[in-house]
């Protein structure tokens, strides 16, 4: 699944703040035609067409690493200017208001209201392939069949979506759900900010199509 070679490749920075499968993300993005750089350089991250924020491990550790790399400031500044940002796995979770792990509450980036909490399921972590239920008007999942499967690895999730948009001129966020023991937020499309709980870079052709869709918006 590659983008047309007739157009200039979009520059995507995979933000390297010490938490995430940056090499896997780099390979997946390059495979679909992006010009990819792994860096934590402030100017490069600010000026790229798209910024991808990965995340693996504990919510609190990811937030600490992100703040130390000034990633919180970069994400906020990019979004205030309508510059695309995409979060993956814990890189999605930290976009919410807070995370609670082992009784410890950590402030997130608060781009969306909500709390990341333990996933209640017979088997945790949720590790493996699963389907999702995307809105019919989703741009992120455009061109994908309803039974497309994506690769998940997580023990925590967001279980409720409370952000409402009352201004008819503003497009409401599109929220995709999945179920493992209980429903949880699997992806969000909200203006310039998109995110997935699953790993598109590990999700084969379906993940490649999804990344292609994101790059197509840059």
TrEMBL record:
Its main location: cytoplasm. SUPFAM superfamilies: Class I glutamine amidotransferase-like. GO terms for molecular function: lyase activity. It comes from the Bacteria. It is found in: Cytoplasm. Keywords: Amino-acid biosynthesis, Cytoplasm, Glutamine amidotransferase, Histidine biosynthesis, Hydrolase, Lyase. Its EC number is 4.3.2.10, 3.5.1.2. NCBIfam families: IMP_synth_hisH. IGPS catalyzes the conversion of PRFAR and glutamine to IGP, AICAR and glutamate. The HisH subunit catalyzes the hydrolysis of glutamine to glutamate and ammonia as part of the synthesis of IGP and AICAR. The resulting ammonia molecule is channeled to the active site of HisF. This is Imidazole glycerol phosphate synthase subunit HisH. It comes from Streptomyces noboritoensis. The lineage of its organism: Bacteria, Bacillati, Actinomycetota, Actinomycetes, Kitasatosporales. The gene is hisH.
């Amino acid at each position: 699944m590659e983008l047309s070679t007739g157009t200039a490749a979009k520059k995507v920075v995979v933000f390297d703040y010490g938490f995430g499968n940056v090499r896997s993300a780099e390979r997946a993005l390059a495979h679909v035609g992006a010009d990819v750089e792994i860096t934590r350089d402030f100017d490069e991250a600010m000026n790229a067409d798209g910024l991808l924020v990965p995340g693996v491990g504990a919510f609190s550790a990811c937030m600490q690493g992100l703040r130390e790399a000034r990633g919180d400031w970069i994400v906020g500044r990019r979004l205030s200017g309508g510059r695309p940002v995409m979060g993956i796995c814990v890189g999605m979770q930290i976009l919410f208001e807070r995370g609670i792990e082992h009784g410890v509450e950590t402030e997130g980036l608060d781009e969306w209201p909500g709390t990341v909490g333990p996933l209640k399921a017979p088997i945790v972590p949720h590790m493996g392939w699963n389907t999702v239920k995307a809105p019919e008007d989703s741009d992120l999942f455009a061109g994908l069949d309803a039974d497309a499967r994506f690769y998940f690895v997580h023990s925590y999730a967001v279980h409720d979506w409370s952000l409402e948009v009352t201004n008819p001129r503003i497009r409401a966020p599109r929220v995709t759900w999945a179920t493992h023991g209980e429903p949880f937020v699997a992806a969000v499309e909200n203006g310039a900010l998109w995110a997935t709980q699953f790993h598109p870079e590990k999700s084969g052709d379906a993940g490649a199509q999804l990344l292609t869709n994101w790059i197509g918006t840059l």
